[in-house]
Amino acid sequence: MKKTKQVMPRVEQGPRPSLSFTERRHGKPPKHLADLSRSERRALVADLGYPQFRADQLSKHYFEHNCVDPEQMTDLPQAQRADLTRVMLPQLITKVRDQVADGGVTIKTLWKLFDGAVVESVLMKYPDRATLCISSQAGCGMACPFCATGQAGLTRNLSAGEIVEQLRQARQLAEEGIFGEPVRVTNVVFMGMGEPLANFPAVRDALHRMIEPAPEGFGMSARNITVSTVGMVPVIKKLADEGLPVTLAVSLHAPDDGLRDDLIPINSRYKVGELLDTARYYFVRTGRRVSIEYALIKDMNDHQWRAELLAAELNSRGRGWAHVNPIPLNPTPGSIWTASTTADTGVFVQTLTDAGISTTIRDTRGSDIDGACGQLAADVVDRDHVSRRAARAQAAVDARIEAHRGEPKDFDSTLAAIAAVTNGDIDE
Ligand code: SF4
């Protein structure tokens, strides 16, 4: 049996969520056209005894027309259609339900996978585009204490086909007029359930399918695709070297290791400095400005001195390579995590802007349907398991996090507090 790899946080003082990279379920979904490169598809079709170009015809139906219905594939011989679609286009995800919010421009969909695992995606219409927020794992092993998905742990990685199918179905719905008129899905963000870079092989293959033109893939613009990470440093490097200039979003949420160790458990392995160095490497390698995501949590990470520290950390690595997105927090039901006040948010943003950091408060679409990653699924799957584990984890984290709440609000008081315990023996 595979041993679960665990990383215990530096500030460990009791039970708390621990990182997990091992899947609880090992069943593999059926192979699908979207799991395969063009040459692999052609080889598979040849193995079935059909001409290789049938693979390209099938791929065009899938990627150009979002079509999986053999009846509509009239350029394929009738006798081959059923066999080709059965082998190449097995049904990977089944809709459980939609939730509509924001006056009809946000649709959150819960999907059931072949083994009963559930994931979600959120389709958002804007005046000039539609964006799909997509899941890359069922559950998540990153254990972020403010996140319902993280409290339930990792069920399993999605296959590339399961990731791509969320997009194909969203494209089909949007183009067929679910928003009242045909809309193209131009943007994808990997900000649904899961840490995408903990499932790198499938996410990398899915990115190729999204970016490469038909018959290889959908032919979307790489710059319209955002991959978010809590800080899988070595995999950020791999992604940078992959030659896919997608946008990287780093969920930072704290500029200091003391707090980030508690907010983002992977920080126990990859510290803020190393993470920002790697994010900067990503910018240099791809030319894509990195997004720094910062969920503003009341009296916890929204202090002005943290905005100053964040600006200093970013500016010390050069100008213009990163853009900060403060996010008004969408709290987990029943948790202690609450959004910053408007006044504190304003000061935080102004402090960053004054330091020359480009900053935009992020849209919080779907907040009335628990729009933060994984909350809908956590609500449906195994509620008892989630709440038992959440309660234990939350109690331990809450106890430690109180210390952060008590921290002084301004940088001078922080220096004075440090000076008090070090007898003034610090460098200013
Ligand atoms: S916030 Fe994202 S990375 Fe953290 S536990 Fe939730 S899904 Fe995973």
From TrEMBL:
PROSITE patterns (UniProt xref): RADICAL_SAM
Cofactor: [4Fe-4S] cluster
Subcellular location: Cytoplasm
Residues involved in [4Fe-4S] cluster binding: 140, 144, 147
Span of domain Radical SAM core: 126-368
Free-text remark on how the cofactor is bound: Binds 1 [4Fe-4S] cluster. The cluster is coordinated with 3 cysteines and an exchangeable S-adenosyl-L-methionine.
Binding-site list for S-adenosyl-L-methionine: 194-195, 228, 251-253, 330
Reaction(s) the record says it catalyses: adenosine(37) in tRNA + 2 reduced [2Fe-2S]-[ferredoxin] + 2 S-adenosyl-L-methionine = 2-methyladenosine(37) in tRNA + 5'-deoxyadenosine + L-methionine + 2 oxidized [2Fe-2S]-[ferredoxin] + S-adenosyl-L-homocysteine; adenosine(2503) in 23S rRNA + 2 reduced [2Fe-2S]-[ferredoxin] + 2 S-adenosyl-L-methionine = 2-methyladenosine(2503) in 23S rRNA + 5'-deoxyadenosine + L-methionine + 2 oxidized [2Fe-2S]-[ferredoxin] + S-adenosyl-L-homocysteine
Gene3D superfamilies: 1.10.150.530, Aldolase class I
EC number: 2.1.1.192
Keywords attached to this entry: 4Fe-4S, Cytoplasm, Disulfide bond, Iron, Iron-sulfur, Metal-binding, Methyltransferase, rRNA processing, S-adenosyl-L-methionine, Transferase, tRNA processing
Principal EC category: transferase
Annotated GO CC locations: cytoplasm
GO biological process terms, semicolon-separated: rRNA base methylation; tRNA methylation
Single GO MF descriptor: metal ion binding
InterPro entries listed in its UniProt record: Aldolase_TIM (IPR013785), Methyltransferase_A (IPR040072), RlmN_N (IPR048641), RNA_MTrfase_RlmN (IPR027492), rRNA_lsu_MTrfase_RlmN/Cfr (IPR004383), rSAM (IPR007197), rSAM_sf (IPR058240)
Region: Disordered, residue numbers: 1-33
Active-site residues, Swiss-Prot/TrEMBL: 120 (proton acceptor), 373 (s-methylcysteine intermediate)
Chief place of localization: cytoplasm
Comment field (misc): Reaction proceeds by a ping-pong mechanism involving intermediate methylation of a conserved cysteine residue.
Similarity comment: family membership: Belongs to the radical SAM superfamily. RlmN family.
Protein function: Specifically methylates position 2 of adenine 2503 in 23S rRNA and position 2 of adenine 37 in tRNAs.
Name the record gives this protein: Probable dual-specificity RNA methyltransferase RlmN
Organism encoding this protein: Arcanobacterium phocae
